[in-house]
Specification:
The protein contains three helices and no strands. By secondary structure, it is an all-alpha fold. Helix 1 packs antiparallel against helix 2 (28-55) and helix 2 packs antiparallel against helix 3. The longest helix has 31 residues, at 63-93. It is elongated and about 65 Å long.
């Protein structure tokens, strides 16, 4: 088994773990972490696919590497924004879920939901 194959399998495992965590965890912070794991797996797979293409004799193209580097920067900034929004949500509501709250006013007074 070559190093590229092993790295590709690791990328596929990261994608699978990220998808599993994204689907099964209801908590927002865990979803953010799962999404980051999923994205890391996709970046790794994309890099390995580009490397295998170059190793197969295709012309070397720097575009995949530039896309992966740009994607890493965008993913980092999106994660920072998501964590900042999650902290703001916790500061405002005291909890980190987006579930619906029960109505606080009764519908009989005309102002309830």
């Amino acid at each position: 088994m070559s190093a590229a194959t092993l790295a590709g399998l690791c990328g596929a495992a990261l994608v699978g773990l990220g998808l599993y965590g994204l689907v099964t965890n209801p908590e927002s912070l865990r979803k953010i972490l799962s999404f980051n794991i999923l994205g890391s797996g996709v970046f790794l797979l994309f890099g390995i696919i580009a490397r295998r293409g170059a190793a197969a004799g295709l012309a070397a193209d720097p575009a995949p590497q530039a896309l992966v580097i740009t994607g890493i920067v965008v993913a980092f900034s999106a994660s920072a924004l998501a964590v900042a929004l999650l902290l703001r949500l916790f500061k405002e509501t005291g909890k980190v879920t987006l579930g619906a709250d029960p109505p606080t006013k009764s519908p009989a007074d005309g102002t309830g939901v």
